Amino acid sequence: MTTRNMPHRALATALLLLAAAGGCGRRAAEPEAQEEAPHTGPHGGALVTLTPEAIRASGIVVDSVRSRPIEVTAELPGEIALDAERTVDVRPAYAGRVRTLGAALGSFVPRGRPLAVIFSNESMADYTVTAPAGGTVVARPVSPGATVDASTTLYTLADLGTVWLDFPIYLQYLGRIRRGQVVHVRGEAGSDLATGTVHYVGPLLDAGTRTSFGRVVLPNRDGRWQPGRLVTAVVALERVTAPLAVPEDAIVRMGAGAAVFRAGAEGFELQPVAVGRSDGTTTEIVSGLEPGARVVTRNAFLLKAELEKEAGGDED
What is the pLDDT of residues 171-191, one digit of tens each? Predict the structure, then answer.
Protein backbone atom coordinates (compact mmCIF):
# COMPACT_ATOMS: atom_id res chain seq x y z
CA MET A 1 0.00 0.00 0.00
CA THR A 2 2.90 2.27 0.69
CA THR A 3 4.16 1.68 -2.84
CA ARG A 4 0.75 2.55 -4.40
CA ASN A 5 0.39 5.86 -2.46
CA MET A 6 3.83 7.32 -3.35
CA PRO A 7 2.83 8.78 -6.75
CA HIS A 8 -0.16 10.57 -5.20
CA ARG A 9 1.96 12.16 -2.49
CA ALA A 10 4.59 13.32 -5.03
CA LEU A 11 1.91 14.91 -7.22
CA ALA A 12 0.36 16.72 -4.26
CA THR A 13 3.75 18.06 -3.23
CA ALA A 14 4.48 19.31 -6.74
CA LEU A 15 1.14 21.14 -6.91
CA LEU A 16 1.78 22.82 -3.57
CA LEU A 17 5.20 23.97 -4.76
CA LEU A 18 3.73 25.41 -7.97
CA ALA A 19 1.01 27.23 -6.04
CA ALA A 20 3.56 28.71 -3.68
CA ALA A 21 5.74 29.82 -6.59
CA GLY A 22 2.75 31.49 -8.29
CA GLY A 23 1.82 33.32 -5.10
CA CYS A 24 5.36 34.60 -4.68
CA GLY A 25 5.34 35.87 -8.25
CA ARG A 26 2.17 37.86 -7.64
CA ARG A 27 3.47 39.28 -4.39
CA ALA A 28 6.73 40.30 -6.09
CA ALA A 29 4.82 42.05 -8.88
CA GLU A 30 2.65 44.09 -6.51
CA PRO A 31 5.39 46.53 -5.38
CA GLU A 32 6.37 47.08 -9.03
CA ALA A 33 2.76 47.94 -9.91
CA GLN A 34 2.63 50.35 -7.00
CA GLU A 35 5.79 52.07 -8.21
CA GLU A 36 4.18 52.66 -11.63
CA ALA A 37 1.04 54.20 -10.09
CA PRO A 38 0.88 58.00 -10.70
CA HIS A 39 2.03 60.21 -7.82
CA THR A 40 -1.10 62.24 -7.01
CA GLY A 41 -2.24 64.59 -4.27
CA PRO A 42 -5.37 64.52 -2.09
CA HIS A 43 -7.44 66.22 -4.83
CA GLY A 44 -6.40 63.75 -7.52
CA GLY A 45 -3.93 66.03 -9.30
CA ALA A 46 -0.35 65.29 -10.27
CA LEU A 47 2.03 66.03 -7.42
CA VAL A 48 5.45 67.70 -7.48
CA THR A 49 7.61 67.33 -4.39
CA LEU A 50 10.64 69.50 -3.65
CA THR A 51 12.99 69.71 -0.73
CA PRO A 52 12.79 72.84 1.46
CA GLU A 53 16.18 73.88 0.09
CA ALA A 54 14.93 73.58 -3.51
CA ILE A 55 11.80 75.60 -2.68
CA ARG A 56 13.86 78.41 -1.21
CA ALA A 57 16.31 78.38 -4.09
CA SER A 58 13.55 78.53 -6.71
CA GLY A 59 11.87 81.57 -5.14
CA ILE A 60 8.46 79.89 -4.99
CA VAL A 61 5.87 81.99 -3.12
CA VAL A 62 2.57 80.69 -1.73
CA ASP A 63 -0.52 82.80 -1.01
CA SER A 64 -4.24 82.34 -0.34
CA VAL A 65 -7.04 82.50 -2.90
CA ARG A 66 -9.22 85.48 -1.96
CA SER A 67 -11.19 88.39 -3.35
CA ARG A 68 -9.05 90.85 -5.30
CA PRO A 69 -9.69 93.98 -7.39
CA ILE A 70 -9.48 93.59 -11.16
CA GLU A 71 -9.28 96.39 -13.68
CA VAL A 72 -11.47 95.46 -16.65
CA THR A 73 -9.77 96.82 -19.76
CA ALA A 74 -10.13 97.06 -23.52
CA GLU A 75 -6.99 96.73 -25.65
CA LEU A 76 -7.21 98.77 -28.83
CA PRO A 77 -4.70 99.53 -31.60
CA GLY A 78 -3.44 103.10 -31.45
CA GLU A 79 -1.26 105.44 -33.46
CA ILE A 80 0.74 108.48 -32.39
CA ALA A 81 -0.25 111.57 -34.39
CA LEU A 82 0.65 115.24 -34.54
CA ASP A 83 -1.29 117.53 -32.23
CA ALA A 84 -3.37 119.30 -34.88
CA GLU A 85 -4.08 122.17 -32.50
CA ARG A 86 -0.33 122.87 -32.40
CA THR A 87 0.38 122.31 -36.11
CA VAL A 88 0.30 124.96 -38.84
CA ASP A 89 0.70 124.92 -42.61
CA VAL A 90 2.73 127.82 -44.01
CA ARG A 91 1.39 129.18 -47.31
CA PRO A 92 2.36 132.10 -49.58
CA ALA A 93 0.25 135.25 -49.60
CA TYR A 94 0.36 135.65 -53.39
CA ALA A 95 0.87 133.43 -56.37
CA GLY A 96 4.32 133.30 -57.85
CA ARG A 97 7.54 131.29 -57.99
CA VAL A 98 9.71 130.07 -55.11
CA ARG A 99 13.14 131.69 -55.17
CA THR A 100 14.60 130.30 -51.93
CA LEU A 101 13.61 128.12 -48.97
CA GLY A 102 15.39 128.87 -45.71
CA ALA A 103 14.51 126.03 -43.29
CA ALA A 104 15.53 122.38 -43.50
CA LEU A 105 13.24 119.45 -42.81
CA GLY A 106 13.44 118.52 -39.13
CA SER A 107 14.82 121.86 -37.98
CA PHE A 108 13.19 124.00 -35.31
CA VAL A 109 12.21 127.55 -36.30
CA PRO A 110 11.04 130.32 -33.98
CA ARG A 111 8.08 132.50 -34.73
CA GLY A 112 8.87 135.25 -37.23
CA ARG A 113 11.85 133.56 -38.82
CA PRO A 114 12.08 134.05 -42.65
CA LEU A 115 11.23 130.77 -44.34
CA ALA A 116 10.95 131.50 -48.05
CA VAL A 117 11.36 134.18 -50.70
CA ILE A 118 8.64 134.24 -53.36
CA PHE A 119 8.65 136.20 -56.62
CA SER A 120 5.10 137.58 -56.88
CA ASN A 121 3.27 137.40 -60.23
CA GLU A 122 1.11 140.29 -59.07
CA SER A 123 3.69 142.81 -57.94
CA MET A 124 6.55 141.41 -60.01
CA ALA A 125 8.75 141.68 -56.92
CA ASP A 126 10.07 139.41 -54.20
CA TYR A 127 8.41 139.06 -50.81
CA THR A 128 9.34 137.04 -47.72
CA VAL A 129 7.24 134.41 -45.97
CA THR A 130 7.90 134.14 -42.22
CA ALA A 131 6.98 131.51 -39.63
CA PRO A 132 3.56 132.29 -38.12
CA ALA A 133 4.44 130.19 -35.05
CA GLY A 134 7.42 128.39 -33.62
CA GLY A 135 7.77 124.68 -34.32
CA THR A 136 9.65 121.83 -35.96
CA VAL A 137 9.59 121.54 -39.75
CA VAL A 138 7.82 118.21 -40.30
CA ALA A 139 7.04 118.71 -44.01
CA ARG A 140 8.49 120.77 -46.87
CA PRO A 141 6.65 119.63 -50.01
CA VAL A 142 7.97 122.22 -52.48
CA SER A 143 11.40 123.02 -53.90
CA PRO A 144 13.01 126.25 -55.14
CA GLY A 145 11.70 127.19 -58.57
CA ALA A 146 8.25 125.73 -57.97
CA THR A 147 5.19 127.67 -59.02
CA VAL A 148 2.88 128.32 -56.05
CA ASP A 149 -0.34 130.06 -55.12
CA ALA A 150 -2.21 130.85 -51.92
CA SER A 151 -3.34 127.23 -51.51
CA THR A 152 0.17 125.75 -51.75
CA THR A 153 1.76 124.44 -48.54
CA LEU A 154 5.38 125.56 -48.29
CA TYR A 155 6.04 124.08 -44.83
CA THR A 156 4.23 122.27 -42.05
CA LEU A 157 5.38 123.35 -38.59
CA ALA A 158 4.48 121.34 -35.50
CA ASP A 159 4.97 121.89 -31.79
CA LEU A 160 6.06 118.37 -30.80
CA GLY A 161 5.86 119.16 -27.08
CA THR A 162 2.57 117.24 -27.10
CA VAL A 163 1.22 114.56 -29.44
CA TRP A 164 -2.06 112.71 -29.85
CA LEU A 165 -2.69 109.01 -29.37
CA ASP A 166 -5.73 108.12 -31.49
CA PHE A 167 -7.46 104.74 -31.19
CA PRO A 168 -10.67 103.24 -32.62
CA ILE A 169 -13.74 102.65 -30.48
CA TYR A 170 -15.59 99.60 -31.76
CA LEU A 171 -19.33 99.06 -31.44
CA GLN A 172 -19.07 96.86 -28.33
CA TYR A 173 -17.29 99.67 -26.47
CA LEU A 174 -19.61 102.52 -27.45
CA GLY A 175 -20.82 104.16 -24.25
CA ARG A 176 -18.23 102.28 -22.17
CA ILE A 177 -15.27 104.44 -23.16
CA ARG A 178 -15.65 107.94 -21.77
CA ARG A 179 -13.65 111.09 -21.26
CA GLY A 180 -11.37 110.93 -18.21
CA GLN A 181 -10.82 107.16 -18.16
CA VAL A 182 -7.26 105.95 -17.57
CA VAL A 183 -5.33 104.67 -20.59
CA HIS A 184 -2.13 102.61 -20.36
CA VAL A 185 0.08 102.97 -23.43
CA ARG A 186 1.96 99.80 -24.37
CA GLY A 187 4.72 99.41 -26.91
CA GLU A 188 5.37 96.69 -29.46
CA ALA A 189 6.93 94.40 -26.83
CA GLY A 190 3.92 94.75 -24.51
CA SER A 191 5.64 96.87 -21.88
CA ASP A 192 3.89 99.87 -20.33
CA LEU A 193 5.34 103.08 -21.74
CA ALA A 194 3.08 105.78 -20.31
CA THR A 195 -0.28 106.45 -18.69
CA GLY A 196 -2.78 109.11 -19.75
CA THR A 197 -6.50 109.75 -19.81
CA VAL A 198 -9.13 109.84 -22.53
CA HIS A 199 -9.21 113.47 -23.67
CA TYR A 200 -11.78 113.18 -26.44
CA VAL A 201 -14.40 110.70 -27.70
CA GLY A 202 -15.72 111.15 -31.23
CA PRO A 203 -19.49 111.79 -31.33
CA LEU A 204 -19.97 110.23 -34.78
CA LEU A 205 -19.46 106.78 -36.33
CA ASP A 206 -17.35 106.33 -39.43
CA ALA A 207 -19.73 105.25 -42.19
CA GLY A 208 -17.30 102.66 -43.58
CA THR A 209 -15.91 101.06 -40.43
CA ARG A 210 -18.82 101.71 -38.03
CA THR A 211 -16.38 102.88 -35.38
CA SER A 212 -15.82 106.05 -33.43
CA PHE A 213 -12.44 107.09 -32.04
CA GLY A 214 -10.85 108.21 -28.82
CA ARG A 215 -7.86 110.42 -28.17
CA VAL A 216 -5.21 110.78 -25.47
CA VAL A 217 -2.97 113.86 -25.28
CA LEU A 218 0.57 112.81 -24.37
CA PRO A 219 3.39 115.12 -23.23
CA ASN A 220 6.40 114.77 -25.52
CA ARG A 221 9.06 117.18 -24.25
CA ASP A 222 11.74 114.50 -24.56
CA GLY A 223 10.68 113.62 -28.12
CA ARG A 224 10.05 109.96 -27.31
CA TRP A 225 6.76 109.83 -29.21
CA GLN A 226 7.26 109.94 -32.96
CA PRO A 227 4.11 110.60 -35.01
CA GLY A 228 3.23 107.48 -36.96
CA ARG A 229 4.37 105.09 -34.23
CA LEU A 230 1.97 102.20 -33.56
CA VAL A 231 1.10 101.38 -29.94
CA THR A 232 -1.63 99.66 -27.93
CA ALA A 233 -4.12 101.73 -25.94
CA VAL A 234 -5.31 99.78 -22.89
CA VAL A 235 -8.41 101.60 -21.68
CA ALA A 236 -9.54 100.94 -18.09
CA LEU A 237 -13.30 100.43 -18.48
CA GLU A 238 -14.13 99.67 -14.85
CA ARG A 239 -12.68 98.34 -11.61
CA VAL A 240 -14.44 95.35 -10.05
CA THR A 241 -13.78 93.02 -7.13
CA ALA A 242 -13.62 89.35 -8.07
CA PRO A 243 -14.83 87.02 -5.27
CA LEU A 244 -11.94 84.63 -5.92
CA ALA A 245 -8.77 85.65 -7.73
CA VAL A 246 -5.06 84.97 -7.90
CA PRO A 247 -2.08 86.80 -9.36
CA GLU A 248 -1.70 86.08 -13.07
CA ASP A 249 1.70 84.48 -12.34
CA ALA A 250 -0.12 81.69 -10.47
CA ILE A 251 -1.81 80.47 -13.67
CA VAL A 252 -0.05 77.81 -15.75
CA ARG A 253 -1.32 76.79 -19.17
CA MET A 254 -1.53 73.05 -19.62
CA GLY A 255 -2.78 70.99 -22.54
CA ALA A 256 -6.21 70.67 -20.91
CA GLY A 257 -6.45 74.36 -20.00
CA ALA A 258 -5.59 76.66 -17.11
CA ALA A 259 -4.35 75.27 -13.79
CA VAL A 260 -2.63 76.28 -10.55
CA PHE A 261 -0.47 74.43 -8.05
CA ARG A 262 -2.02 73.83 -4.64
CA ALA A 263 0.46 73.89 -1.76
CA GLY A 264 0.08 71.17 0.88
CA ALA A 265 2.00 68.94 3.23
CA GLU A 266 2.42 66.37 0.45
CA GLY A 267 3.88 68.86 -2.04
CA PHE A 268 2.50 70.96 -4.89
CA GLU A 269 -0.58 69.50 -6.54
CA LEU A 270 -1.71 70.49 -10.03
CA GLN A 271 -5.30 71.79 -9.90
CA PRO A 272 -7.29 72.58 -13.08
CA VAL A 273 -9.29 75.81 -12.81
CA ALA A 274 -11.72 77.86 -14.88
CA VAL A 275 -10.65 81.48 -15.18
CA GLY A 276 -12.73 84.60 -15.79
CA ARG A 277 -11.83 88.26 -16.00
CA SER A 278 -8.20 89.36 -16.01
CA ASP A 279 -6.30 92.62 -16.24
CA GLY A 280 -2.97 90.97 -16.96
CA THR A 281 -1.93 91.22 -13.32
CA THR A 282 -4.82 89.55 -11.48
CA THR A 283 -7.08 86.75 -12.81
CA GLU A 284 -10.49 85.71 -11.55
CA ILE A 285 -11.06 82.05 -10.60
CA VAL A 286 -14.55 80.89 -11.62
CA SER A 287 -14.26 77.30 -10.41
CA GLY A 288 -11.71 74.78 -9.18
CA LEU A 289 -10.65 76.47 -5.93
CA GLU A 290 -12.28 77.35 -2.64
CA PRO A 291 -11.70 80.53 -0.58
CA GLY A 292 -8.51 80.32 1.43
CA ALA A 293 -6.89 77.62 -0.70
CA ARG A 294 -3.11 77.96 -0.68
CA VAL A 295 -1.58 78.15 -4.15
CA VAL A 296 1.78 79.01 -5.67
CA THR A 297 1.66 82.65 -6.79
CA ARG A 298 5.23 83.12 -8.01
CA ASN A 299 7.45 80.90 -10.17
CA ALA A 300 4.69 78.36 -10.73
CA PHE A 301 6.18 77.79 -14.17
CA LEU A 302 9.14 76.05 -12.50
CA LEU A 303 6.77 73.45 -11.06
CA LYS A 304 5.19 73.01 -14.48
CA ALA A 305 8.62 72.40 -15.97
CA GLU A 306 9.41 69.87 -13.22
CA LEU A 307 6.12 68.08 -13.87
CA GLU A 308 6.80 67.92 -17.61
CA LYS A 309 10.30 66.66 -16.97
CA GLU A 310 8.99 63.86 -14.76
CA ALA A 311 6.37 62.95 -17.36
CA GLY A 312 9.04 62.82 -20.05
CA GLY A 313 11.18 60.62 -17.86
CA ASP A 314 8.31 58.17 -17.36
CA GLU A 315 7.82 57.93 -21.10
CA ASP A 316 11.49 57.04 -21.59
Answer: 999 999 999 999 999 988 777
